[in-house]
Each structure stands twice: as structure tokens, then as C-alpha cells.
Amino acid sequence: MERIYLDNAATTPLDPVVLDAMMPYLTSQFGNPSSIYSYGRESRLAIENA
């Protein structure tokens, strides 16, 4: 029998393309997008271009 995931209110499967795009920000490129320093500005730019 094929399994179907129906609990999207709890979480949803992550698209591999999205995971690839997010990996730098989860592993090495940290910065508060609300801050004024360079790491934060880079994070804000990434969000705006997403």
C-alpha cells in the first residue's frame, strides 16, 4: 500500500532545491538580517532575492 503524508499542519516535506539554497545559511553564512553589519546585510539581501 502506498503511504500518503497528510499532516501538513505539523510540517511539510522540504524540496531538495530549497534545501540546497538554504544550506549555506544553515552551516556557514550566519547573520541577522535586521542588523546593519555586513553579515546581516548579506542575509537581508539573500532574503529579498529569494
From TrEMBL:
<dbReference type="Pfam" id="PF00266">
    <property type="entry name" value="Aminotran_5"/>
</dbReference>
<protein>
    <submittedName>
        <fullName>Cysteine desulfurase</fullName>
    </submittedName>
</protein>
<dbReference type="InterPro" id="IPR015422">
    <property type="entry name" value="PyrdxlP-dep_Trfase_small"/>
</dbReference>
<dbReference type="InterPro" id="IPR015424">
    <property type="entry name" value="PyrdxlP-dep_Trfase"/>
</dbReference>
<dbReference type="GO" id="GO:0031071">
    <property type="term" value="F:cysteine desulfurase activity"/>
</dbReference>
<feature type="domain" description="Aminotransferase class V">
    <location>
        <begin position="4"/>
        <end position="50"/>
    </location>
</feature>
<dbReference type="InterPro" id="IPR000192">
    <property type="entry name" value="Aminotrans_V_dom"/>
</dbReference>
